[in-house]
Amino acid sequence: MKITLPGINLFEEKLCDKIKIAINEEIQNLDKTLKYSLTLEFDESLIYCSESIQAFFIPDEKLPQYQRGKELYGDDKMYAILGYQLKVAEEAVESCGIIINHASIQGSPFDEINCINVRLQEQEEKDLKLDKKRKNEKSLKCNVIMPSLTGFAKNVYNAFEKFEKEMDNVLERAFNSKELYKKYKVLVGKEELYKTYLDFKSEYGDMWIDSKEHRDELLRKFHQTVKIKAGLITDEKMKSEVIKPLIIPSKTIFELNVYKRTKTGNGIHKDIGQVSLMTNGKIIKIEYCARRKNYEIIDENFDDCYIEVNDRYDNFKLVNSIRELVEMANTIFEKYDFTINQDAMDNILDFIDIKRLIKMAREV
């Protein structure tokens, strides 16, 4: 329901009385068993009338505690007036037996400066089964103050425009070419390109595009991912390789020696290399470094030697996962008659905070 009050504006001192009269005239059209939202609308140009704002009187007891006894100026006074007049309107409506659970005051572009609109909207409520105690509790009220709807819309537009510009800048950097970006923007769409960028950000960290060590590899993977979405890469094998995450370990958790077994298999020779457990905060991966060329193992053998981790893992679960990972790696070494010194791992795991290390790696 919309009730228009002509001949008055935001600075009306008898706003309460005028609203009461208007509501009582429409009371037969309102259902007192329902709850309503109240919106008080005024001409938004009034928020720039500094003389009227400064001259408006607000009783000290109606101000918030921290503003009482103080002289208010500018925006402080303007917002105080809006809050005060909203409260006046709310009390006027409720004095007529109407329940308000949401109230707002809003400046809008009006043709007539001396005009106020009072809007009452029925509120739908879910049929909740409440106990007696909760039935007697007062529901929470929400009050909103918007000095200028036009100004708000302008701010939203400016924020949207800024976000669009930031998206363009980020994607141009990711493609390293304005022309290439324009091409794929037509083929895939700006929103889908930005979603792909965010997926990379989630997978490889906030600074993936500035990674010194992996920048070229990550950008190439980004471009190939976009080509898949554009339908330019159709080979299923190539698509599966592109989609597979690039594993970038960055922090050493600990290192273990690798030994060569004796010919009988009952003993071991001195160490021939070491395995490192590395983490980037999202995965823990095994890396092997041989001390001599004849003890090397092709890296591809360890491609599947990693585990994914997240914040929900506690130290106990991480330790067990690491034991399983090392055991998996050891089965690979056994094919070459090598073995990992797992006894040393037990001593290390008793004194190391794996979760803290993973958190530090994620922050890096």
Descriptive account of the structure:
It is a single chain. The chain is of the alpha+beta class and 364 residues long. The protein folds into 3 domains: 2-147, no CATH class; 153-243, no CATH class; 251-363, no CATH class. The chain is 43% helix and 20% strand. It is built from 12 helices and 10 strands. The protein has helices at 15-26, 50-55, 74-94, 132-135, 149-175, 178-188, 190-204, 215-229, 236-243, 315-334, 342-349, 354-363, and strands at 2-6, 35-43, 99-108, 115-122, 142-146, 251-261, 268-279, 283-290, 306-308, 338-340. Strands 1-4-2-3-5 form a 5-stranded mixed β-sheet. Strands 9-8-7-6-10 form a 5-stranded antiparallel β-sheet, with helices on both faces. Helix 1 packs parallel to helix 3, helix 5 crosses helix 7 and helix 6 crosses helix 7. It is elongated. The two termini are 57 Å apart.
Strand and helix layout:
Blueprint: E1 2-6, H1 15-26, E2 35-43, H2 50-55, H3 74-94, E3 99-108, E4 115-122, H4 132-135, E5 142-146, H5 149-175, H6 178-188, H7 190-204, H8 215-229, H9 236-243, E6 251-261, E7 268-279, E8 283-290, E9 306-308, H10 315-334, E10 338-340, H11 342-349, H12 354-363
Parallel strand pairs: 2-3, 3-5
Antiparallel strand pairs: 1-4, 2-4, 6-7, 6-10, 7-8, 8-9
